[in-house]
Amino acid sequence: MKHLINAAAAPAAMKNLRAALAENECVALIAEHAAYLRDKGGIQCVAIGTDFDGIEGNLEIADSAGMELLAEALRKRGFTESEVELVFYKNVLRVMEDAMR
């Protein structure tokens, strides 16, 4: 990997994410974190995974139908359409294909 991400920042990021979840501001914060990772490590190290099982409450993205909210938030942060595709599935697909070689 060309760049390394500061792993020490992860606990603070998770605390911010929990606070955002409580205030229903999760989508904007996820987009902010994705932009940070893209700017520090490159678009090739940003990917989104989802798991909606067992999550309850009034969430911005309650199921897969809400993922367009995140795509739009990424676009507002300056992500191109090709970068949104990389984040949503192409980066993970690349890693999985590399792992199966």
Automatic annotation (TrEMBL):
Supply the name of the protein: Renal dipeptidase family protein
Species whose genome carries this gene:
[Clostridium] asparagiforme DSM 15981
Q: Which InterPro entries match?
A: Metal_Hydrolase, Pept_M19
Organism lineage: Bacteria, Bacillati, Bacillota, Clostridia, Lachnospirales
Q: Mention one GO molecular function.
A: metallodipeptidase activity
PANTHER family, A to Z:
DIPEPTIDASE, MICROSOMAL DIPEPTIDASE
Q: What domain of life does the native source organism fall in? A: Bacteria
Per its UniProt record, what PROSITE patterns does this chain match? RENAL_DIPEPTIDASE_2
One BP annotation, GO? proteolysis
